[in-house]
Each structure stands twice: as structure tokens, then as C-alpha cells.
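for the writeup, i need someone to sanity check this before i put it in the appendix. the sequnce is what the collaborator sent (i think, or maybe the updated version? ugh). structure was predicted straight from it, no edits. if anything looks off just tell me and ill rerun, i have time this weekend
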Amino acid sequence: MIEWFNRGGGKNKEDPLNAAPARPGSGRSHLRILVVEDNVDNQNLTRLMLEHAGYKPDIAANGRLALEKCAVFDYDLVFMDIQMPEMDGYETVFQLRKIEAYKGTPIIALTAHGQDSDIAKSLSSGMNAHITKPVKKSMIYDALDKWLDPRLKVLVADDNPDNISLLEAYLRGETGLRLYNAANGKEALEIFGRTIFSLVLMDLQMPMMDGLTAVRALRGMAEGKTVPVVAFSAHNDPVKIRECLDAGCTDYLVKPVKKEALLEKIREYL
């Protein structure tokens, strides 16, 4: 099944999680993980564990800084220390769960307190699981295996709802994908800046900001320099195709897009 995500970050459809083990060498750099921890030694230890498994985690030294980072990026999972200065883990989670994009994000408690009452408090405060320090690699990897959705993220920028529905029908059997949609180029750039995508499908004719303008801007973003961008257009003119490629698109499909052609491009670039 395909899982579509709306512009607020919430899920439109449920899809069973079928995650492969997140063990060293699995290469999950397309997923964002945030570690909220005030102790520098614990920060470094958790970072090394995650990097060894193929992730590139961000670090926040307290709850306030975590909220600032979460206002900029959509993280796929958060490891949350409990006892921190300025804002503790419980209050941070309470504030995070108010944000639409974080209502369903897995948040794992990391704390030295492991009594039944501590675990119950973590879960009742809005966290999904509880890991007691000292943290071991197996604990981190088991949490990743259970709670992370490893599917590749694809951004679809198209203002026509019928085209979106058609793409969903085409890709319904592609279980390794999570699709996000944007209604114009400006919205596509905003969503792209928050999440790591493995592929962008870009319509060229959209309101507010057209596809070529969006692609040029995307190529100037840190995560946008190498991501494959497949453009959609009703024009089959070689001049138009060359303009599209010169703007930074990786490839080009002519509308109406055929299912076989779309799947071929997806498999080529993913």
C-alpha cells in the first residue's frame, strides 16, 4: 500500500509498518532522527551508535532547542532524555504532540530511571517506548526496528487532484514508498526543506510557482543538489525537454503519464 502524507504532516491513510532490521550497514540516511540529550558523553555515544547503523542524527541539548529544531525539520523518530535543564522531556513531548506533524512521530524515552512507575509516566506523557540508561546498541537498534518506517519518501508536486489520484493508483503496489504531495512549486520547496526525499516528481505548470522555478530553487538547497527530479509535462517538444533538463531536472515524462513509464523511472532512480 501507498501512504500519503498531507501538507500538515499527518497521515491520510494507514499502512502497516513492514520495517527491515536497522542494523549496521543498512544505510538509512534518508531518515531524520533527533537525539534530545543534555549530557555530552551520552550525546556522543548515541550519535556513534546511530551513525554506525547508517543514520545522520541531529542533537538538541535541551527541550527548548528540540522544539526549535522540530519547527524546522520533520523528524522520523525522536530519542528523548527526561531530566534536562530549561525544559524536561515530559514538557517537551507535551509541546511536540501539539504540532500536527508530530502527533504520530515515534518518541522514545532515554532515562536512568527504569522503575515501572517511570515507564508508565513516560508512556502516559505521550512517548511510545522507554529505554533505561546505560544505553546499549541492541536497545537502540531494537527501537529503530520497531518504530521507524524505512520506506523511501517521494515528493509529488502537482496541482491537479485527478493526477494525484492517478499516481496513487499506479503506485499502490509499491510498498517501499511514502508519498507526500504539494499543490504548487512554493509548497513543494517548503515540504522539501523539512524532510529528506529520495525522489521528486514535479509537474511543470502549477500556480504560484511553476515547476522549473521550483527545480532551480531546489537545486540550491543542501539536500536538493543530488536528489533525482522527474518532470511531468504535456509538451513533447525537444526544446521544452532541453529547457527542463537545463533547469536541473534529471528526467522527463510526457503527460498523460503511463504506469509502465512511471514505474520504470522510479525503479531507475530509487
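The CA atoms of residues 49 and 140 lie 8 Å apart. Confidence is low (pLDDT under 50) at residues 6-26.
thx in advance!!
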